[in-house]
Amino acid sequence: MNITCKDKVFKIDTENTSYVIAVADEEGFIGHAYYGDRIEEAPGYLLRTEENPFVPSKNNRDRGSFMDSFPCEYPGNGLGDYRDGAVEIIDADGHRAINLTFDDYKIVDGKPHLKGLPQTFEKGTGAPLNSGEGKGGENREKTTGAAKTLEIYASDKVLGVKAILRYSVFDDNDAIVRSAELINDSKETVYITKALSASIDMDSEDYELLTLHGSWARERQIDIRPIGYGKTSVGSVKGESSHQEHPFMALVQKGTTQDYGKVYGFSFVYSGNFLAQVEKSQFDSVRAMMGINPGGFKWELKAGESFQTPEVVMVYSGEGLGRMSRTYHDLYREHLIRSPYKDKERPILINNWEATYFDFNTEKLLSIAREAKKSGIEMLVMDDGWFGVRNDDNTSLGDWNVNEEKLPGGLKYLVDEVNKIGLKFGIWMEPEMISPDSELYRAHPDWAIQIPGRVATRSRNQYVLDLTRPEVLEHTWNSIKTVLGSANIEYLKWDMNRQITDIGSVYLGRENQGELSHRFTLAVYELQERLVREFPNLLLENCSGGGARFDPGMLYFSPQIWCSDDTDAIERLGIQEGTSLVYPLSSMGAHVSDCPNHTVGRVTPFVTRGHVALAGTFGYELDITKIPENDRAMIPEQTATYHKYNRLVREGDYYRVASFRENHFFDCYGVVGKDKKEALFTFVQVFNRPNCHSRLIRLKGLDSGKNYSISFIHGAGEGSGEKREVLSGDTIMKAGILMQNPWGDFVSCLIYLREV
Ligand code: DGJ
Prior knowledge:
By secondary structure, the protein is α+β, with helices and mostly antiparallel strands. About 20% of the residues lie in helices and about 30% in strands.
C-alpha cells in the first residue's frame, strides 16, 4: 500500500493494483489516467493530452471537444462534457454548470471518519457513526499506519463550491475506497441535485456489465450484458437498496470466469436510493459511476455547509471474479462489520415465521423451544405477530406493546420460560413502519410519509414513518429500547416490508422535500447506531421483506442480513451465489425450512436443505414439532456439523467451482482456510442426467504442495462420512476428485479436506 505524488500525478498502489490520477493543463483538470494491475510508473501519456483536441491552453478553439473527451476523475456538468456528470448544482442564479478543478492535495495516514455514514475503517478502529466534525476532512480516526488516504482538494472557481475527493487504501487489501465531500464556500445557498461518490473514465476494451437483479424471493441473480453505446444503468428510488437491483456493478472483460479476466467491481456502502451507471461514448470510452440516485434528489447547501457522499468500494481483479469476491469478503469482514459477533459462531436459531406465521401463543412457542433444545438448537426467534392486535399483516405496526392474549404474562414471562428451557431468545420488529390501523396512526396520522392532499399509497397495508422528524425518531427509538429492555432479548431481526413512495414530509420545508429519502436513510443509520451502542451484546440481523436491504451500509450495523424469503435449497443456490459475489458467507442469513417449500412448492431432501444453509449463518425456519420424524432426527447431526465447520465457513476464502446457473446441472462452491490446512466444499446435483460419466471436479484454492485426506459427507453430518484416499492439493486442483453421479435430483454432498 502506498500513495505518491510527483508533478501532480497521483499514484495509489495496493499490493496488486494501481490507480493513477493526473492533473492536466494550467486550469487544473483532474483526469483519470489508469486503474488496473499494479504498474511501477505512471507515464505522462496516459491522459492523451498531447493529441487532438489538446488541452484548452493550447487549443481553446476546441475546448468543447476537450471537455467531451477528457477522461475525468469527478466530472461536472453543463460545460461541454455531454456525458453524464458526477455532480450537478443549481446556483443562486439558477444555473446548473459546475467544473471542479485542482487546488491542492494531502496524503494522510489512516482514514478520515465520514460523519453519520456507514463506512470502511482501518482494522480495529470502527468508530461510532457520528464521531468527528465531518467537515473538511479534519477528523481522522486513530491510525496504526495500516491505511492511507489521498485527499484531492478541488473547487469551481466561479461558484466557490469546493470538493474533497478521498481515496483510501489498506495495507492488507486491494480495494480502493472513494467518496466526495462538497463544501459551499460561497456566500449563497446552492442546491445539489446530483452528488455521486465515484466516477471513472476508461477505454472500453469490450467490457460487459455484471449486475445483480432480482425480485422478492429471487434476490441478487447474476446478470451480464454487453455495454452498448449510450447509457446503461441500474438503480433504486425505493428508499432502500431494493430486491430488484443491487448497489453493485462490475465491468468484466468479455469471457471473464471465476479465474480469468479483468474485473472492475463497484460496491456502494449505502442502503437508500442509488445509481450505478456506465456510459459508452462516441470515442469508445466508458464512464462508470456510482452514488446516491439523483432521481428526486435535491439538497439545500447553505453557505458554509458541507455534504458528504457515501463510499464506493472499488476492487480491480486481473484474475477473474473469484479474486474480486475474496477481496470484498476480506474487506467487509475486517474493515466494515463492527459487530462483536463478526468473529463469533452465531447461535443456531429457530424462527417461527414459516412455522406458525401469525398463529401462535406462548404454549406453541414453548413447545417449539422444548423440541428445538433436544436437537442442539440454541435460540428461539419470535417473528411477526406478537404485538398490538396483529393477527395478520393488516394492523398494529407502531404499537409495540405485547399482545397478552397470545402471550399471557407478557414478554418477560415468555423469555424467562424459553431461557429456562436452555435457549436464548430473539425477537422481530419493523420499527420504521406504521399501520393505518394502529393506535399510533390514530394519534399521529401526520407521522407517515405522504403527500398532503393525495391518497397515500399503501403497501402490505402499511405506511413508512417520517423518521426525518426528530419526535418520530425519538418515539421510534424509545419503542425499540423499551421492547429490548423488557426481557432478556439477545437477538433482534429488524425488518422493513415496504418501499418508500409518496415523497412528502410535513416536517421538511418546500425546498427540502428532495432531501427526504437520504435523510430517511441517515435516520435509519442513527437508530441502528443507538441500538448497537445501547445493546452492544445484541445480535442484530437486518432484513427487508427478505433481502431488499442486503447491502454494505447495513453490514456496518449488523453482522448478518436475511438473504431472502425464499428458503428453497435450489432457489437459494442462485441467491447465495449472487450474494457471495460481494458479501462474505458469514453475513448471509440462511435457514433450513420445511417442504413443500412455502415459496415454490418444491420438495428437496432435508440433507440438501442443511448443506445449502451451512453456507450462511445457519438456522431453522419450521415447526420442529410437526416435521417428519426422519427429518427431525437429522437435526442433531446438522447442528453438530454447523459447529464443526462454521469457523471455516466464516473465516475462510471462498471459491466457486461450478454454477448451476451456467451448467444447468450442478453447483459446487467451497471455503478454504486461510492457512490452507482444511477446506469444505458443497456439491449439489440439481438435476440428474441419464447415461453420463462420473464427474471429475477440480477443486480450487488448496496448497498444491500439501496432501489432503478427503471425506465425502452424503448425509446430515459426520456419521455419513465416506473417506477416500489421500491426494495432493496439486492433483485435486489439476486432475480433480471423482464424484459419482448421485441418484436423483436435488442431491448434495459435503466434501471435507484436511491436511495430513
Ligand atoms: C419478511 C421477512 O423476510 C420474513 O422473514 C418475516 O419476518 C416477515 N417479513 C414477517 O412479516
